[in-house]
TrEMBL record:
Name of the protein in its database record: Thioesterase superfamily protein
Record key words, sorted: Hydrolase
Pfam families (alphabetical): 4HBT (PF03061)
Keyword Transmembrane helix applies: no
Length: 142
């Protein structure tokens, strides 16, 4: 099932454009990574906060949709602690609440050394649609 979910999320054109990869996914869990390059740097020559946010948001999306319930973000917050060191950052998402309509998820963003560089918290809304990961088809739940 993990391979089907990863394949489904390859359709996220923005994550693909930025260079984000979904590396692991399971029930209420996801891990994403981003190999950093010049295009991810801001004017101060450090990783742009939006790149870090997008990585965390994509991990949130994969974790909260992993159970096959189509979920969209309705609120999110991120706190940046320090600039990452190294050439790769990773986001690890864990669903903390999984209701029928509302869910919550925490995401830790780590640099190459495993140092916490940011913490993301998101709230999702379940749209009442079931995802068939093998076909990508959404169907209305009964």
């Amino acid at each position: 099932m993990e391979k089907e979910i990863i394949k489904f999320f390859e359709k996220d054109r923005f994550a693909h454009f930025v260079g984000i990869e979904l590396t692991k996914v399971g029930a209420g869990f996801a891990e994403t990574s981003l190999d950093l390059s010049e295009k991810h740097m801001n004017g101060l020559d450090i990783v742009q906060g939006g790149a870090i946010f997008t990585l965390a948001d994509f991990a949130f999306a994969a974790a909260t949709n992993s159970n096959g319930l189509a979920t969209v973000g309705i609120n999110s917050n991120i706190t940046y602690f320090k600039a990452p060191k190294g050439k790769k950052i990773t986001a690890v998402a864990k669903e903390t609440s999984a209701g029928n309509k509302i869910c919550g998820c925490d995401v830790d963003v780590l640099d190459e050394d495993g140092t916490l560089i940011a913490k993301f918290s998101g709230t999702g809304y379940r749209k009442g649609l079931k995802i068939d990961f093998s076909t990508g088809i959404l169907t209305k739940m009964k």
